[in-house]
Amino acid sequence: MPEIELINVTKTFNEGKVLAVDNISLKIEDGDYVFLLGPTGCGKTTTLRMIAGLEMPTKGKVLINGKNVEAIPPEDRDMGFIFQHFEIFNHLTVWENVTFGLEMRGFEDDYIIQQAEKALKTVGILEYADEYPSVFANPGLQKLAIARAIATGANTLIMDEPLGSLDPKVSKVFRHELRNLVKDLGLTAVHVTHNQEQAMAIADKIIIMRNGKILQMGTPYALYENPNSIFVANFLGETNFLQGFVLRLLDHDLMEIWIRLGGPKIICKNPGLKFNLDNNIVIAFRYEDVYLFPMDYDFKNSLYDWSEMEFFTVTLESSRFIGETKRFYLRLENGDKFTSVKPGTFEENFFSGNQILVGVHQNDIHVFKAPSDLLYELSLS
Amino acid sequence: MLRKSKVDQEAKTNLSFALKFDRFFSKPVYRKSLDTITIIFFLLVIIGPIINIFSTIFFNVPSIYHDVFADELIGDLQWINILKSLGVSFSVATIAVIFDIIIAFPVSIILTRYHFRGKNILDALVDLPMAVPTSALGFSVLLFWGIFGINPGMPLIILGHIIFTFPYIVRNMKIVLEKSDTLYEDAARTLGASGITVFRTITLPLMKEGVIAGSILAFTRSLGETGATIIISGLVETAPIMIVGFRRQLQLPAASLLAGILIAISILLLFSIKFFARGGHFPIKGVLPNFERLLSNKYLRYIRDGLTVIILGVVILIPSLFIISQITEGNLVEELFLGRDYKWAYLYTSFISSVEIGVLAVCINLIFGIPFAFIITKRKWGKFITFLDTILDIPIAIPSAALGFAIFLFWGPAGIGLFQPGFLMILFVHVTFSFPYMVRPIIGVLESSNEGVEEAARTLGASNLTVFRRITLPNIKQGIIAGCIMVFTRSLGETGATIVVMGSIRTIPVLIVDWVEANAYPSAIFASTIVIIFSAFLIFTLRAVTKKRGV
Amino acid sequence: MVEIELKNITKTYGKTPVLKDISFVIKDEEYFIILGPTGAGKTTLLKIMAGLEHPDSGKVLFDGKDVTAKSPGERNLGFMFENYALFPHMNLVENVAYSSRVHARNKEMTNALVNQVLMMTLLTGRDNAFPEELSGGMKQRVALCRALMNLEQTKLLILDEPLKALDAGLRMNLRQELLLMAKSKELDLTVIHVTNEEQEAMMVADRIAVMNQGEIIQIGSPHEIYYHPKELFVANFLSEINYFEGICIKNETPLWDIHQKSEQKDKFYAEIHEHSSPLLLDIGFNNQFAAYVKNDFNDQIHHGDKILLVVRANHMKIRLGNRLSRKSNSFIGKILRRKFMGVFYRFEVIIRVKSKEKKIIITIPATTEIHNRFLEDSEVTVYFPKELGIVFKYPGEQIIQDILKLE
Lengths: 381, 551, 407
What we know:
Distance between the termini of chain C: 44 Å
Structural class of chain C: alpha+beta
Number of helices of chain B: 25
Shape of chain B: globular
CATH class of the largest domain in chain C: Alpha Beta
Largest interface: A-C, 51 and 46 residues
Strand order of the largest sheet of chain C: 6-7-8-3-9-10
Helix content of chain B: over 70%
CATH architecture of the largest domain in chain B: Orthogonal Bundle
CATH superfamily of the largest domain in chain C: P-loop containing nucleotide triphosphate hydrolases
Shape of chain C: elongated
CATH superfamily of the largest domain in chain B: MetI-like
Number of strands of chain B: 0
CATH topology of the largest domain in chain C: Rossmann fold
Distance between the termini of chain B: 47 Å
Order of helices and strands of chain B: HHHHHHHHHHHHHHHHHHHHHHHHH
Structural class of chain B: mainly alpha
Largest sheet of chain B: none
CATH topology of the largest domain in chain B: MetI-like fold
Radius of gyration of chain C: 25 Å
CATH architecture of the largest domain in chain C: 3-Layer(aba) Sandwich
Oligomer: heterotrimer
Number of domains of chain B: 2
């Protein structure tokens, strides 16, 4: 049975003038680490707050374990909360911060001590119990916020940009500890962020939102490999987009696309014959799915099956070493530009200004109907 | 992977008494009752008397008309005198405020943008006139300028009012300057602007609201200034002094009329702050870069700063504190202890009275001030809150004599008849006057406090009252202490209204006025000195307490 | 054309030293990044370069001329603040044109220049908007335009965390725009850009100065500081790392010929390790480990010295099953956790060192094969090319704790 469910939930503010969440439905399974991901203003925080009970839906229902929780305030929903700016009680000691929630629920002293110790030990700050939070820098405050949230034994963690106050470097390491903690304790987690890399790094499932609506939800793998819209394809990971139209329909559910302004002709999959002749389309493929070959590469003597690979010629404008990866900035004959990403240790024998051969696998090419405003679809807001 | 065990059913739950109490009284019905009581208190005690003045005027038009405009003997002489006194008050206020603004600019910049040792002391000194009893200040001013041959009269009044209104303007400027720190000014400097240009194009526009609000508050303060003016006015009559005169001569209709006029003007001015703060542009868009760079020269700046400090010292600081140096003049001991009229006894009893009233005023204002501050910052009642916020300042803006008279009319023999002139009425007056001084610091600290922490506490199961007790209160502690100290000092210094309602009791400020009028200078000096030192001590405590929280 | 030199810059606030004897040179037309965690002193350094603050000691030189005493206006540079500092009481155009107004420049020329600059950053059509009405991305562009308008003689642009306040996605885009603009021939800019995000630094910098606690730890190109970090701090800051404590045993007869180049193509690894020599290490396993160390470093690591071996998560390689061979840097272990991250798969692998368990982090480009076959609990062999091992003299337990643990 799903743990948290939203059914046709809408939320408006200012007597209906502001539509923050527009008729969304979602299910969060028990034990899942779920991300609400999207640009600023997409409604993800409002959705989180409705799950938490800090806001009430204007329309629709919020169910927890099958029960409508409209009448149940946040503190009775068996949830622990972590806020973007931690909201630590600075005038209380670390210990008092953690025991606060337990005390509010009226537990016995022995039990309170036991739970608080366990929470502090789990995040690793038990030795600071008698200090005030001012001794901590942001990572320590983060841990305290987590300890306070899990001390009451809540089964769900509600988090609004919990890593937002950390330096990028620290955040990249800490997020894994956060995920491990959630998994070790068997909690359900709902985590809001605008940072897609963070979501991809630690989510079990991702719910992508924009303008108050849910665009797509699923595992990171599913969303990454099969984005259902240009926005999702662009928002998650790094993606190249080229415009063109359908030149020919071919057998085996394939079609030939002609990239605009005299670009290359590429064969793509056309499952279910979704596209027809002359349709204006946009193709999308990830930076890392662009393979690079010198012009004189010997394909015949290699071991791989190149039959489903599409090749075209490009000019290498420049390349750049980024550490973990190398980027290659490429330009088609028609002037369109795109990028290839390879591991940092990629051996390159290419020179800027020269022509090279680029290959993209048919399975890695996503085709979308051309939108009326491509720039809007590609904007990340 | 471990699965956390579900524990709630096993652990017993038993809320402590305090939490149960909190939970019970957090129910909406109790909050609503508290809100209602607080607002009733506010309206009755603060607004009631004012409305009463207007209604008294309204209902007594015939007698007012008779006394003021159509007296058998003197015709409308009273009315002409009233107009004259209003003219005097307005001109004094205008001149004082203009002078203050000019000095306040460099002073507020020095206090916010510069860093030097002793800045804190200078900062405190600038605030001093606000805390010290006006009569003591007035007396000090009288003595100081007397040395230069400036006797009671118009010039002395102006010099005095410059001092009294100065802190209001500086404070408001400082608040605005501190809010934006140097960010925009830095940006302007990187874009090539030099000192004067930065000030003109960036700092000044940003301070606009603070300047306007401060000026209007200062203007009304000057309009209403009574206690010190009595001492330094000589034969000239400002409007508040005229009210005191009418009261002493029991010419109540005339007193009511003038009080009503003054109150109406002050209220209008207060409301205008909210409207005018937004508008208004500073002229001169163009920049003369070389000329202004010349003006911004380091040495010119030193000269300007030096001049400012000198003027600040000579016109404002030294006259305020001069009196302390006079304590050795005259036969203090003889007069105080050996005189036949037991001056020492009087000093002692008035000190006790002042302290008693002060403490009681603090308590009452605490009880009603905290909920009121919460209403203003937390309740979402739209326009009503704006209304409450604006009229909250009325007790500051209204001439103390006028308000004292209004309270006298409302609660005294001529009105409800609940109180006779005396201790309780004085207490009433003090509560009314100092109410904003309790509420404003609390509002300030509530507004900058973090609502997120309160929400976090609620998600952890705390009821509203628990949140207030355990989370909000510790965090606004400083604001509350600041409020208490300010109320106490304000009460200690309150002169004008007390004179109107006092009956036979003497608070210290009133005692000072008495002694000055009776030419018992050494005693008056002594009393003033004690009060000034005591107030200074309180101010420094206030600053020490509020400094702990900030940078 | 402007070259900036800092000589012995020191700054203390009260009792806290914020900048400790900083000296370096920024070359003409460089895109120079100052990278470091919050609190490293980066903003203070920028302010001293701009003239908004004065150093306690030391000099700032533009093209050889001492400008330490000069006011910000006299240094004629463009400065972009972290939260943009757009004048709230002026509209968009007034903000952008401010420097021209302050210098009393010709009105017509100013208008033309303003329009040009606004067009370049796609900000046309909102001339009368006030800052509070603009989105984050737009505010950033306005701040940039305003700074650019100030560049007359000195072609220096200073950016203080210019992208920090923006959403992650927008940040990526604007990064590129900044770089393109800086490198454009018309503008010929030298750019000093401060950030706390390492990816940002690596993406746009010609050279990076890594800063921590008031000191410059290392300056170099992205390639240099990535493959040859001078200290553990730098190594750790640029990616997730694995570290092993061990001892240098370089004088022992190797079990295998360590002069034999790795199986990969020569050029890449040879490039990385010009002027380096291999070192043999004992990090607690039965088989030997080897890594390279720069020759000027080499003299300082002797036989028997305690060392710290660092291997980046993305330099580790992984194969299914037990392929342990005595002659390469390899260990066997079990996959504890795996996570698909898009471009990469991230693995946490448990290996045994001297009967203690250790966790290794590995990031590998995601392929279908990995997705289908490298599952949790699988036995795997982890190894790394010796050219990609980084060796430091053992810095002590405390430093390792400070850098790698989070408090």
